Protein: Salicylate hydroxylase
Organism: Exophiala viscosa
Amino acid sequence: MCAYKPRIALVGGGPASLTVGNLLHKHNIPFTIFELRPQPTEEDLAKPVGMLDLHEESGLAALEACGLSKEFHSHTGVCSESQIIANKEGDVIYTDDGGVATRPEISRNSLTKILLDRLPPDSVKWEHKLISASRITSSSSGDMEIELDFDKHGKHTFDFVIGADGTWSRVRNLLTDTKPSYAGWQLITVTIRDVTVKYPEFAQYIGTGSFMCLGQRHGVLSQRGLQDSARIYVCLTTADEHFGDKLGLNNGTPAEAINKLLNDNALLGQFGPKVKDLVRIACDEETKDNPDAKLGIMPLYMLPIDHSWEHKTGATVIGDAAHVMCPWAAEGVNLAMHDALDLSQAIIKASETVPEDAASFQRRLDVLVEEFERAMAERAKEKAEETYNNGQVMFSSEDGATAMAEWMTSMMAMVMAQQAEAGEANVKVMPE
């Protein structure tokens, strides 16, 4: 390892940034993570949030490189890999127990916890809001630097900045003028805690893993989570980016929004009574848990499927900052952690081989990061196409449930055939 210690900043404190931090820390490469949110407490990290299924070639590979596989598996089991699909009347038309699945689920909060626990406490600067990122010339060395403006926390300069700051990344502005566009969906998220005790019938209905009820280009989806919770997602297809404001749904509590959601035939009015009851209960429970909270409808955004940029010295972006897409293929966190793994390897390699000065480090890193960005764009394009196609299956017809059930049946058959073929190959190569 050379004596020169590059000044590296990561903007954003999600899984991608924390993964990079873990991998750099293992190689004694200094870094600083800047995160907008306050530091989470143990109580915060125990709260129900979305579940993430990690894939062997990406999310799980990154955790293995961090040395966190054991910790990861200790946090799985909250949400099974089973799947249930129902039509808009609420009738279940497809189930599987997840028996051939290989993508274990972990809570986003649990993943954050295991990644944070391995980092030096002073490596993350909480409540730092990035106002702008710009390129400047160092007054002392004449080298190019990246200046980050954190408003009340001042301006700081770095040799290399990694933007892991999400959909509306400010670091991305250093690389490209391309902005995300509205994807055509609005997402409402509400939670039922202690669902097995409070509502055993609905706990059985939605199962121990993932549930989706699809129809009329809308959906009611669910995942089981921490605190024996059911995280309920209402997904509405609409061309109106400002749908929530125009219908007044953003102005009231979840409980106050129920009538508009469930009685309008253009929304969930024609869905079956059991599905409506599930949404009603979830909205009521969310309001009980958070009496002052507004409903909050989140428009979904995406970058172009083939999004890329010409490499520029001193900065790059990963995760949603590089390739935000809709959640229909469960690839977001996996792509982000794959990005983190590959980018960390580039930084580690550059740090091991360059002479002892910033300019040489940047020249070496430029070559490696440009290769990384090219590979990341190709990988992201493939997953963005998959995500788009899944969204079309789920929401482009009046009967998305049947389309999705047929797709799941074919996918499960393909996986089982691949596993059987792999098993036969293993038998053939075993010594007699």
Observations:
- The chain has a mean pLDDT of 92.
- DSSP finds 14 helices and 17 strands in the chain.
- Residues 145 and 334 are 30 Å apart (CA to CA).
